[in-house]
């Protein structure tokens, strides 16, 4: 099922109304027993709620007929018992509806998080982290509020309305018809409200997402903001986004208040119709005063449930907009829906041969982020298993894009990428992740004990295996020197690691994953000169024996590789060993000459 994008394709997918209803129907079908329980207790609550009105109608007739006090007490006892039963049943109904809704929301939230974690990084980069953050926080909060506070009220009110109208018809069909005369007016109020409110609430959710994105960018880039004195401009951007969200919220609430006036008119017309028709029927002797009284009370009691249904549409609209955004991610086809990432896949179950070895091959690969700007142009490249290859080229030459192709983060516009002799696009994401691991210059240290951070790569890894991985990349000594060693809390709120240490953590994760193919996308670019050389030694140790693709930040890295591939404007223009390319006096040789003139050549000698 492919989510239908609406209005702005720069945001994550938003499910259409049809897709949202389809998801809800499928989810409810898995909880038939809970749904039946909700209907049963809500119907019992509704029947008990109308009983006192009927009892009062009988009471009026008995008083008119001159009945004794014992009869009146019996009727009062029935009304009191019905009120007690109704209260208990209503409480059970609220609990049942809230429990069912909370369970559905929990399932949806987990599905959204699983899908989001498997989305290609380009999707998150294109749409912005703020949109995703807004969905898993603000949208979940809006849906959760509706599920816990609004949905139980609406369900009970809907069933009570249906039972009350049916009871009025049972008293006399003309009384029921008089009460039903107000329903078209309620419908017209809703018909006027929905087309005006839906776009506003959807726009409000988008505006909140844009505000979140602006705040995320401001806080994540706080050092840059302070360094360049951008506090005022960033605050202005956040203020503008916040003002836009505020104005849309006010516009939506204004529409809601105008709908309330239309509801009040419908209430007046309905009650007046019941009283007038009841008076005429009593005059003709068609119904008793008690029946008319009961009908009037029943309709008056509908003010609250119908009002709750209509007035809850503000929250329901917000929840519906949030729900469609959550479902849009949950049913997105931009991710792989196979087993969890930490599951070891039995390749015999894939329906085809698994990748064999670490050979990488690109055949006539073309790629562009849009049709007008091709990034890769007819790349033909074969990397033998165990070979270390450096990608060299100016900024924008296509180095990181080619690396992302090999890592499975991007799909060619045309052509194919193969690992171990198998087309990459035919493999589940989990299989790709087991065969290809990427370390970039943008690494993240997760908050918590350091050993837990490393075990994210392989949850089953024992302490000895973690220590062996750290020892491989030369990090075990400084890790043991931390306040609590492997149990030291790192990341936000914990011990702050240096950039070089964070990169070594990423390399240790690569060792634990133990893939046949590794992609290093400028993985040593964040450290200084001395730190860079240490990181290069760590990277060499982590990738020993693996097919390795290195997006080189310094030309000195290329000399440590078996082969060098030079890219220019998305094409391979040179390929060979470092010695061959230096001797050929081509682009790589000219780049190296310029590099050494600037005094960088000594890095290669150390």
From TrEMBL:
Keyword set includes Magnesium: no
The keyword Nucleotidyltransferase is annotated on this UniProt entry: no
Location (main, coarse): membrane
Assigned GO CC terms: plasma membrane
Transmembrane segment boundaries: 38-60, 72-105, 146-169, 175-194, 266-282
Positions of the ABC transmembrane type-1 domain: 38-318
Keywords: ATP-binding, Cell inner membrane, Cell membrane, Membrane, Nucleotide-binding, Transmembrane, Transmembrane helix, Transport
A single MF term (Gene Ontology): ATP hydrolysis activity
Domain of life: Bacteria
All residue ranges annotated as the ABC transporter domain in the record: 360-594
Locations listed in the record: Cell membrane
Membrane topology classification: Multi-pass membrane protein
InterPro entries in alphabetical order: AAA+_ATPase (IPR003593), ABC1_TM_dom (IPR011527), ABC1_TM_sf (IPR036640), ABC_transporter-like_ATP-bd (IPR003439), P-loop_NTPase (IPR027417), Type_1_exporter (IPR039421)
UniProt xrefs under PANTHER family: ATP-BINDING CASSETTE SUB-FAMILY B MEMBER 10, MITOCHONDRIAL (PTHR43394:SF1), ATP-DEPENDENT PERMEASE MDL1, MITOCHONDRIAL (PTHR43394)
Name the UniProt record assigns to this protein: Multidrug ABC transporter permease
Species of the source: Williamsia marianensis
């Amino acid at each position: 099922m492919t989510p239908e994008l609406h209005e702005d394709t720069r945001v994550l997918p938003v499910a259409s109304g049809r897709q949202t209803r389809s998801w809800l129907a499928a989810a409810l079908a898995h909880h038939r027993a809970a749904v039946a329980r909700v209907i049963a207790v809500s119907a019992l609550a509704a029947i008990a709620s109308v009983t006192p009105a009927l009892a009062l109608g009988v009471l009026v007739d008995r008083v008119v007929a001159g009945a004794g006090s014992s009869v009146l007490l019996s009727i009062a006892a029935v009304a009191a018992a019905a009120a007690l039963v109704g209260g208990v049943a209503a409480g059970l109904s609220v609990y049942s509806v809230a429990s069912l809704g909370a369970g559905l929301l929990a399932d949806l939230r987990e599905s959204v998080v699983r899908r989001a974690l498997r989305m290609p990084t380009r999707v998150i980069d294109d749409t912005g982290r703020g949109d995703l953050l807004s969905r898993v926080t603000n949208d979940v909060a809006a849906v959760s509020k509706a599920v816990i506070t609004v949905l139980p009220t609406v369900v009970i009110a809907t069933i009570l309305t249906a039972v009350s109208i049916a009871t009025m018809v049972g008293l006399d069909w003309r009384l029921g018809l008089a009460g039903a005369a107000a329903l078209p007016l309620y419908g017209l109020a809703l018909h006027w409200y929905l087309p005006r409110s839906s776009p506003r609430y959807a726009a409000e959710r988008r505006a909140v997402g844009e505000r979140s994105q602006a705040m995320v960018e401001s806080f994540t880039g706080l050092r840059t903001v302070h360094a360049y004195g951008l506090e005022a401009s960033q605050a202005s951007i956040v203020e503008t986004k916040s003002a836009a969200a505020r104005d849309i919220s006010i516009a939506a609430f204004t529409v809601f208040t105008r709908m309330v006036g239309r509801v009040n008119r419908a209430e007046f017309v309905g009650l007046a119709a019941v009283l007038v028709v009841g008076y005429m029927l009593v005059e003709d002797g068609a119904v008793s005063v008690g029946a008319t009284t009961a009908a009037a009370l029943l309709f008056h009691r509908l003010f609250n449930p119908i009002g709750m249904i209509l007035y809850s549409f503000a929250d329901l609209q917000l929840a519906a907009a949030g729900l469609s955004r959550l479902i849009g991610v949950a049913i997105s086809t931009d991710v792989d829906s196979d087993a969890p990432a930490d599951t070891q896949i039995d390749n015999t179950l894939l329906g085809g041969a698994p990748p064999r070895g670490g050979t990488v091959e690109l055949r006539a690969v073309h790629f562009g982020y849009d049709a007008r700007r091709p990034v890769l142009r007819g790349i033909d490249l074969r990397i033998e298993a165990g070979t270390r290859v450096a990608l060299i080229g100016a900024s924008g030459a296509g180095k990181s894009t080619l690396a992302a192709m090999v890592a499975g983060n991007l799909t060619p516009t045309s052509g194919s990428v193969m690992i171990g002799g198998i087309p990459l696009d035919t493999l589940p994401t989990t299989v790709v992740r087991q065969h290809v691991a990427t370390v970039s210059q943008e690494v993240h240290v997760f908050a918590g004990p350091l050993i837990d951070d490393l075990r994210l790569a392989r949850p089953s890894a024992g302490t000895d295996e973690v220590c062996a991985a750290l020892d491989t990349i030369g990090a075990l000594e400084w890790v043991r020197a931390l306040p609590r060693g492997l149990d030291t809390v790192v990341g936000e709120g914990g011990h702050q690691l240096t950039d070089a240490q964070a990169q070594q953590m990423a390399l240790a994760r690569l060792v634990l994953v133990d893939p046949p193919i590794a992609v290093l996308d400028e993985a040593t670019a964040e450290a200084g000169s001395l730190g860079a050389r240490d990181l290069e030694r760590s990277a060499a140790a982590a990738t020993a024996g693996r097919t390795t693709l290195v997006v080189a930040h310094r030309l000195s890295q290329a000399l440590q590789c078996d082969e060098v591939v030079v890219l220019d404007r998305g094409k391979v223009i040179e390929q060979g060993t470092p010695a061959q390319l230096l001797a050929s006096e081509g682009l790589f040789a000219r780049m190296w000459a310029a590099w050494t003139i600037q005094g960088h050549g000594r890095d290669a000698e150390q």
